Amino acid sequence: MNTSTIFVCCLLFLGITTVSAQKKITTAELPKGANEFLEQHFKGIAITKAKKDAEHGEKGYEVILADGTEVEFWKDGKYREVDGKGKPIPTAFLDPKIVEYVKKNYSGKEITHIDYGHNDVDVDLTGKIDLEFDKNGNFLKAD
Questions:
Q1: pTM, 2 dp
Q2: Residue 142 three-state SS
Q3: Exposed / middle / buried, residue 48 (Cβ in 10 Å: 0-12, 13-18, 19+)
């Protein structure tokens, strides 16, 4: 096999892998909890895209809203990440300890992104401030 053939085979494999990792779905195919979360916290903002996603070996769902906000859900429908793309996001669903910490220590800043990892919670604020909390909402560090 020559180099060109190997290169083309690699590209085809990567394309197939990418396609199989993300599958567009209808909003009706989202878990009940995901639809309830969107209705409660993003009422009136249309869903422009929904897809089933296998990111880093974790199965879940990704939703893109008309205002550009991206919301990722675990496979059970619980939210995992909300990214306002630099715009403030609703905070009613966040750990109250995190919201209070931000209000107290970063007055005038708003939460634009939250990401629940396996070991911690990353929170981004306006002004490109990055904070890290433990799973119990206790502040760990600022980056």
A1: 0.81
A2: strand
A3: exposed
